[in-house]
Write a structure and sequence with these properties.
It is a single chain. By secondary structure, this protein is an alpha/beta fold. The protein has a single domain, classed as Rossmann fold. It is built from six helices and twelve strands. A hairpin with a 2-residue loop joins strand 9 and strand 10. The longest helix has 18 residues.
Length: 251
Protein backbone atom coordinates (compact mmCIF):
# COMPACT_ATOMS: atom_id res chain seq x y z
CA UNK A 1 0.00 0.00 0.00
CA UNK A 2 1.34 3.40 -1.07
CA UNK A 3 2.15 6.20 1.37
CA UNK A 4 1.07 9.52 -0.10
CA UNK A 5 2.59 12.81 1.08
CA UNK A 6 -0.14 15.10 -0.26
CA UNK A 7 -3.63 13.81 0.47
CA UNK A 8 -5.56 17.09 0.22
CA UNK A 9 -5.69 19.87 -2.39
CA UNK A 10 -4.12 23.24 -1.68
CA UNK A 11 -6.39 26.29 -1.41
CA UNK A 12 -9.50 24.34 -2.34
CA UNK A 13 -12.81 26.21 -2.18
CA UNK A 14 -16.23 24.89 -3.05
CA UNK A 15 -17.77 26.34 -6.18
CA UNK A 16 -20.73 28.69 -5.75
CA UNK A 17 -21.59 29.58 -9.35
CA UNK A 18 -22.60 27.75 -12.53
CA UNK A 19 -19.25 28.30 -14.27
CA UNK A 20 -16.27 26.18 -13.20
CA UNK A 21 -12.72 26.48 -14.52
CA UNK A 22 -9.53 24.67 -13.51
CA UNK A 23 -6.52 25.76 -15.64
CA UNK A 24 -4.29 23.53 -13.50
CA UNK A 25 -5.95 20.27 -12.55
CA UNK A 26 -5.20 18.89 -9.11
CA UNK A 27 -2.57 16.25 -8.47
CA UNK A 28 -3.13 15.43 -4.79
CA UNK A 29 -3.23 11.82 -3.55
CA UNK A 30 -2.85 9.55 -6.61
CA UNK A 31 -4.67 11.78 -9.10
CA UNK A 32 -3.08 12.12 -12.54
CA UNK A 33 -4.11 12.91 -16.11
CA UNK A 34 -2.68 9.79 -17.75
CA UNK A 35 -6.10 8.30 -18.47
CA UNK A 36 -7.22 10.34 -21.45
CA UNK A 37 -10.49 12.16 -20.94
CA UNK A 38 -10.81 11.56 -17.19
CA UNK A 39 -12.48 14.34 -15.28
CA UNK A 40 -10.67 16.74 -12.99
CA UNK A 41 -10.61 15.84 -9.28
CA UNK A 42 -11.83 19.35 -8.45
CA UNK A 43 -15.08 18.58 -10.28
CA UNK A 44 -15.59 15.31 -8.43
CA UNK A 45 -14.73 16.81 -5.03
CA UNK A 46 -17.19 19.65 -5.54
CA UNK A 47 -19.98 17.24 -6.52
CA UNK A 48 -19.36 14.89 -3.60
CA UNK A 49 -19.12 17.66 -0.99
CA UNK A 50 -22.23 19.48 -2.16
CA UNK A 51 -24.54 16.56 -2.90
CA UNK A 52 -23.62 13.88 -0.35
CA UNK A 53 -22.65 13.32 3.28
CA UNK A 54 -19.95 11.21 4.92
CA UNK A 55 -21.00 7.57 4.99
CA UNK A 56 -23.35 7.91 2.00
CA UNK A 57 -23.39 5.31 -0.76
CA UNK A 58 -22.14 6.64 -4.10
CA UNK A 59 -22.13 5.05 -7.56
CA UNK A 60 -19.92 5.65 -10.57
CA UNK A 61 -20.97 3.14 -13.27
CA UNK A 62 -18.19 4.22 -15.67
CA UNK A 63 -15.22 4.71 -13.36
CA UNK A 64 -12.64 5.17 -16.15
CA UNK A 65 -9.42 6.59 -14.72
CA UNK A 66 -10.50 6.19 -11.09
CA UNK A 67 -10.95 9.84 -10.09
CA UNK A 68 -14.27 9.23 -8.31
CA UNK A 69 -12.84 6.30 -6.35
CA UNK A 70 -9.90 8.35 -5.07
CA UNK A 71 -12.16 11.17 -3.89
CA UNK A 72 -14.65 8.76 -2.31
CA UNK A 73 -11.85 7.25 -0.27
CA UNK A 74 -10.50 10.65 0.80
CA UNK A 75 -13.94 12.04 1.68
CA UNK A 76 -15.24 9.00 3.57
CA UNK A 77 -17.96 7.91 1.16
CA UNK A 78 -18.89 4.36 0.28
CA UNK A 79 -18.65 3.72 -3.45
CA UNK A 80 -19.73 1.19 -6.03
CA UNK A 81 -17.47 1.61 -9.06
CA UNK A 82 -18.14 -0.20 -12.34
CA UNK A 83 -16.61 -0.19 -15.79
CA UNK A 84 -16.98 -2.36 -18.87
CA UNK A 85 -13.25 -2.08 -19.57
CA UNK A 86 -10.97 -4.40 -17.54
CA UNK A 87 -8.11 -1.90 -17.92
CA UNK A 88 -10.13 0.78 -16.12
CA UNK A 89 -10.85 -1.62 -13.26
CA UNK A 90 -7.16 -2.46 -12.94
CA UNK A 91 -6.12 1.20 -12.99
CA UNK A 92 -8.71 2.18 -10.38
CA UNK A 93 -7.77 -0.59 -7.97
CA UNK A 94 -4.14 0.47 -8.17
CA UNK A 95 -4.92 4.17 -7.63
CA UNK A 96 -6.86 3.66 -4.39
CA UNK A 97 -4.14 1.47 -2.90
CA UNK A 98 -2.86 4.16 -0.54
CA UNK A 99 -2.95 4.88 3.18
CA UNK A 100 -4.77 7.71 4.92
CA UNK A 101 -4.38 8.71 8.56
CA UNK A 102 -8.11 9.16 9.20
CA UNK A 103 -9.70 5.98 10.47
CA UNK A 104 -12.45 5.81 7.84
CA UNK A 105 -14.61 2.72 7.60
CA UNK A 106 -15.87 3.37 4.08
CA UNK A 107 -16.19 0.57 1.55
CA UNK A 108 -15.20 0.88 -2.10
CA UNK A 109 -16.35 -1.90 -4.42
CA UNK A 110 -14.73 -2.02 -7.88
CA UNK A 111 -16.14 -4.50 -10.37
CA UNK A 112 -16.26 -5.23 -14.09
CA UNK A 113 -19.80 -4.39 -15.19
CA UNK A 114 -21.83 -2.67 -17.92
CA UNK A 115 -23.46 0.59 -16.80
CA UNK A 116 -26.62 -0.42 -18.66
CA UNK A 117 -27.21 -3.27 -16.22
CA UNK A 118 -27.15 -2.30 -12.54
CA UNK A 119 -29.15 -5.35 -11.43
CA UNK A 120 -26.78 -5.99 -8.50
CA UNK A 121 -27.91 -2.71 -6.94
CA UNK A 122 -31.25 -2.43 -5.13
CA UNK A 123 -33.91 0.12 -6.02
CA UNK A 124 -33.66 3.44 -4.15
CA UNK A 125 -30.33 2.61 -2.50
CA UNK A 126 -27.87 5.18 -3.90
CA UNK A 127 -27.40 8.63 -2.36
CA UNK A 128 -25.42 10.08 -5.25
CA UNK A 129 -24.45 8.76 -8.66
CA UNK A 130 -21.84 10.61 -10.66
CA UNK A 131 -20.00 9.76 -13.83
CA UNK A 132 -18.22 11.12 -16.89
CA UNK A 133 -19.38 9.07 -19.90
CA UNK A 134 -17.54 8.89 -23.22
CA UNK A 135 -18.53 11.49 -25.80
CA UNK A 136 -19.58 9.04 -28.51
CA UNK A 137 -16.44 7.68 -30.23
CA UNK A 138 -14.26 10.78 -29.86
CA UNK A 139 -12.05 8.69 -27.55
CA UNK A 140 -12.34 4.92 -27.95
CA UNK A 141 -11.56 3.35 -24.59
CA UNK A 142 -11.81 -0.32 -25.49
CA UNK A 143 -10.44 -2.52 -28.21
CA UNK A 144 -12.62 -4.28 -30.77
CA UNK A 145 -13.16 -7.21 -28.43
CA UNK A 146 -15.47 -5.11 -26.22
CA UNK A 147 -18.09 -4.29 -28.83
CA UNK A 148 -20.64 -3.21 -26.23
CA UNK A 149 -18.54 -0.24 -25.09
CA UNK A 150 -20.54 2.92 -25.84
CA UNK A 151 -17.30 4.71 -26.75
CA UNK A 152 -17.35 2.71 -29.99
CA UNK A 153 -20.68 4.24 -31.11
CA UNK A 154 -20.43 6.94 -33.79
CA UNK A 155 -24.12 7.60 -34.48
CA UNK A 156 -25.47 10.25 -32.10
CA UNK A 157 -29.00 8.88 -31.90
CA UNK A 158 -27.78 5.36 -31.22
CA UNK A 159 -25.44 6.71 -28.53
CA UNK A 160 -28.30 8.56 -26.84
CA UNK A 161 -30.46 5.42 -26.94
CA UNK A 162 -27.78 3.61 -24.95
CA UNK A 163 -27.42 6.57 -22.58
CA UNK A 164 -31.16 6.41 -21.94
CA UNK A 165 -30.79 2.79 -20.81
CA UNK A 166 -28.12 3.93 -18.34
CA UNK A 167 -30.30 6.83 -17.22
CA UNK A 168 -33.21 4.48 -16.47
CA UNK A 169 -30.98 2.32 -14.31
CA UNK A 170 -29.56 5.33 -12.50
CA UNK A 171 -33.06 6.62 -11.82
CA UNK A 172 -34.12 3.24 -10.44
CA UNK A 173 -31.24 2.90 -7.99
CA UNK A 174 -31.20 6.54 -6.80
CA UNK A 175 -33.03 7.37 -3.58
CA UNK A 176 -35.92 9.82 -3.72
CA UNK A 177 -34.77 13.46 -3.59
CA UNK A 178 -31.13 12.40 -4.11
CA UNK A 179 -28.84 13.34 -6.98
CA UNK A 180 -27.19 12.18 -10.19
CA UNK A 181 -24.34 14.17 -11.80
CA UNK A 182 -23.27 13.73 -15.43
CA UNK A 183 -20.44 15.57 -17.20
CA UNK A 184 -21.00 15.67 -20.96
CA UNK A 185 -19.56 17.61 -23.89
CA UNK A 186 -20.66 18.47 -27.41
CA UNK A 187 -19.15 17.66 -30.79
CA UNK A 188 -19.17 18.62 -34.47
CA UNK A 189 -20.16 16.69 -37.57
CA UNK A 190 -19.36 18.11 -41.02
CA UNK A 191 -18.32 21.38 -39.37
CA UNK A 192 -21.78 21.79 -37.82
CA UNK A 193 -22.34 21.97 -34.07
CA UNK A 194 -24.01 18.93 -32.49
CA UNK A 195 -25.48 19.63 -29.01
CA UNK A 196 -24.72 16.18 -27.65
CA UNK A 197 -24.88 17.34 -24.03
CA UNK A 198 -28.44 18.60 -24.41
CA UNK A 199 -29.42 15.45 -26.28
CA UNK A 200 -28.16 13.44 -23.31
CA UNK A 201 -29.87 15.81 -20.87
CA UNK A 202 -33.21 15.18 -22.58
CA UNK A 203 -32.81 11.43 -22.05
CA UNK A 204 -32.32 11.89 -18.32
CA UNK A 205 -35.36 14.15 -18.14
CA UNK A 206 -37.35 11.60 -20.14
CA UNK A 207 -36.79 8.82 -17.58
CA UNK A 208 -37.98 11.00 -14.69
CA UNK A 209 -35.08 13.09 -13.38
CA UNK A 210 -35.49 16.83 -12.79
CA UNK A 211 -32.69 19.23 -13.71
CA UNK A 212 -31.25 20.82 -10.57
CA UNK A 213 -28.26 22.59 -12.15
CA UNK A 214 -26.57 23.09 -15.54
CA UNK A 215 -22.94 23.95 -14.82
CA UNK A 216 -20.59 25.11 -17.57
CA UNK A 217 -17.10 23.69 -17.17
CA UNK A 218 -14.30 25.39 -19.09
CA UNK A 219 -11.99 22.93 -20.86
CA UNK A 220 -8.23 23.47 -20.65
CA UNK A 221 -5.20 21.80 -22.21
CA UNK A 222 -7.17 19.86 -24.80
CA UNK A 223 -5.07 17.48 -26.88
CA UNK A 224 -4.30 18.77 -30.42
CA UNK A 225 -5.73 22.22 -29.65
CA UNK A 226 -2.91 23.93 -31.60
CA UNK A 227 -3.67 21.90 -34.72
CA UNK A 228 -7.41 22.58 -34.49
CA UNK A 229 -6.88 26.28 -33.75
CA UNK A 230 -5.34 26.67 -37.21
CA UNK A 231 -8.12 24.61 -38.75
CA UNK A 232 -10.80 26.69 -37.00
CA UNK A 233 -9.56 29.82 -38.78
CA UNK A 234 -9.03 28.09 -42.09
CA UNK A 235 -12.46 26.43 -42.16
CA UNK A 236 -14.41 29.02 -40.11
CA UNK A 237 -15.58 27.19 -37.01
CA UNK A 238 -15.07 27.75 -33.28
CA UNK A 239 -13.34 25.30 -30.98
CA UNK A 240 -15.59 23.73 -28.38
CA UNK A 241 -13.97 24.63 -25.06
CA UNK A 242 -16.73 23.87 -22.58
CA UNK A 243 -18.67 20.94 -21.17
CA UNK A 244 -21.97 20.68 -19.32
CA UNK A 245 -22.14 19.27 -15.83
CA UNK A 246 -25.76 18.36 -15.27
CA UNK A 247 -27.00 17.81 -11.72
CA UNK A 248 -30.24 15.84 -11.78
CA UNK A 249 -32.53 15.13 -8.85
CA UNK A 250 -34.96 12.26 -8.39
CA UNK A 251 -38.03 14.19 -7.24
Amino acid sequence: MKKIKKLDPENFEQETSTVWSYPKRGNWATHNSKYRGNWAPEVVRNIILRYSEEGDCLLDPMIGGGTTAIEAKLLNRNLIAYDINPKAIEITKDLIDFEIEDNFDNKITIELNDARNLSKIDDNSIDLSLTHPPYVDIIKYSNKEIKEDISSIHDLDEFCEQIEIIAKELYRVTKKNKYCAILMGDTRRNKMYQPLAFMVMQRFLKVGFALKEDIIKHQHNCKATGFWAKRSIEYNFLLIMHEHLFIFQKT
